[in-house]
Amino acid sequence: MCGIVGYIGYREAYPxxxxxxxxxxxxxYDSAGVMLFDGENLKVSKTKGKVSDLEERASKEITTNxxxxxxxxxxxxxxxxxxxxxxxxxxNSGDLAIVHNGIIENYAPLKAELIKxxxxxxxxxxxxxxxxxxxxxxxxxxxxxxxxxxxxxxxVVGAYAIAVFDKKTPNEIVAARLGSPLAIGVGEGEFFIASxxxxxxxxxxxxxxxxxxxxxxxxxxxQMKVRKIKDDSLVNPTIQELQMNLEQIEKGGYDHFxxxxxxxxxxxxxxxxxxxxxxxxxxxxxxxxxxxLEKFLNAERIIIVACGTSWHAGLVAxxxxxxxxxxxxxxxxxxxxxxxNPIINSKxxxxxxxxSGETADTMAAxxxxxxxxxxxxxxxxxxxxxxxxxxxxxAYTHAGPEIGVASTKAFTxxxxxxxxxxxxxxxxxxxxSNSLFHTYLQELVIIPEKVKEALETNDRAKEIAAVFKxxxxxxxxxxxYNFPVALEGALKxxxxxxxxxxxxxxxxxxxxxxxxIDEHMPVVVIAPKQGHYDKIVSNIQEIKSRSGxxxxxxxxxxxxxxxxxxxxxxxxETSDALSxxxxxxxxxLLSYHIAVMRGCNVDQPRNLAKxxxxx
Length: 615
Ligand code: M6R
What we know:
The chain is α/β, with parallel strands linked by helices. The chain contains 20 helices and 27 strands. The strands form 5 sheets. It has an 8-stranded antiparallel β-sheet, covered by helices on one side. A 7-stranded antiparallel β-sheet has the order 5-6-7-8-12-13-14. It has a 5-stranded parallel β-sheet with strand order 19-18-20-21-22, with helices on both faces. Its EC number is 2.6.1.16.
């Protein structure tokens, strides 16, 4: 939540900061701001709205072409989205400026103390408290910026990624992180600071990812110093070569990132299993699993912790692990798990699933699991993310940057990784017959082709979207492996089109939701041939006899459901266990088209942000 950008070097800072903010807008987009230094004064422009609104405003307000700047795109936590609460925030003296991603939890007592000392606050934000705290510390002991930031950060409780500028030392930006990501791009005579590397990939491929609890003094023409905030010890940071390229973070001719990412699924699923799945040899090799095979084999239980779409992937994995590897699985909302007193044993394996690798609730669940002695395995997409570092071992999904706020390719690649793990364990445990094991491997290899075929339902999904775009509610039903897909389909529709939608196990419908069904209620039923087909046909009949409008996702050639349903979308045949990788595709497309037809901002739905780094 919130994206921060900074530049210090020889180029004009403003265009770099603005472009960087646009790339980070997926992290929050309710307000935005920039601070440039003109050699004498801080020039600040900020506004409620998107980066494009900021650009319009800044074109009138920012006159300098200075080569130092910081910027921010916000997802509000403290204080409503408005101009005043937007970042950057400036200290009372007017000397210091800050951009901040995170939350200062103890801001209230700090603010009260600063008010006693004469500080005046203009915004409702915790960030304005932090910059004035830094100023107070600096003044009191006559400290340089870096030291003042360090002392102040040792007084705060919470999470942060910050960039701080002091006009008294104009060749320097101080950056620090705890619980929120921060990358520093290292160029020739220039540095970039950003929440992820996307703002600077065309300028440098060298990046340092600060670790939690580290800060960096970034000075022009001097060596960057990285130290631990707590004890001041110097750290030798690793410079990593970036894997990201521009093409991955651009729309590439698609109208929206979400659509591009839906269409990327055949190729990213291949990337996910490439080098790991050797169908002809009958092998699955994943380093994180091989290195810890004994632990997996001795596990008495697997607990999956995740949020949102990743939680839905966890539910699919529950079915797969239990079916293939016969290991009991529990799937937990990370946010609930962390706040009860869960029973975790040292023989439990906790699998944390997260696209961003930064989700605060999932992070907290991991910490709790580690404290209880469990082995924690991460399934993340973002390389080097906090969760991937915090877990004992893990497997990346290799989906590439997912920029649309609604997760699509993250879901299918997470299921791919989890399926491979389950198959590997099944082989080692002998819980799946050899022939079935080989059949699944062969089938996984051709899944990308089937996903490609499923993408051909786009026009059909668009036609159906036109019929239902004005529906106020929608039900999604599925059974077995496709119950989590029903939940995921409903989440997609809710989050991007703002239509109220619920996912249910199809058989649960008769225990309550059936009361909602009348001739106005669209009901999306996932009814592939494999699985509990006859049962779901009965459920469809129940809907039909109450005049519900049935949109069925069926296997190509299906005749039985076709007779009952109002609309059908045909997908290629797969085994029951792998079907979520296919059935989810038309549901993604359906939500996408409905949202577009309703004029919604598909990539940046209201109130949401891509990575949820607050509780
Ligand atoms: O980055 P994560 O996978 O940990 O994110 C979890 C959820 O915040 C995320 O899946 C969210 O529900 C998406 N908006 C769903 O499309």
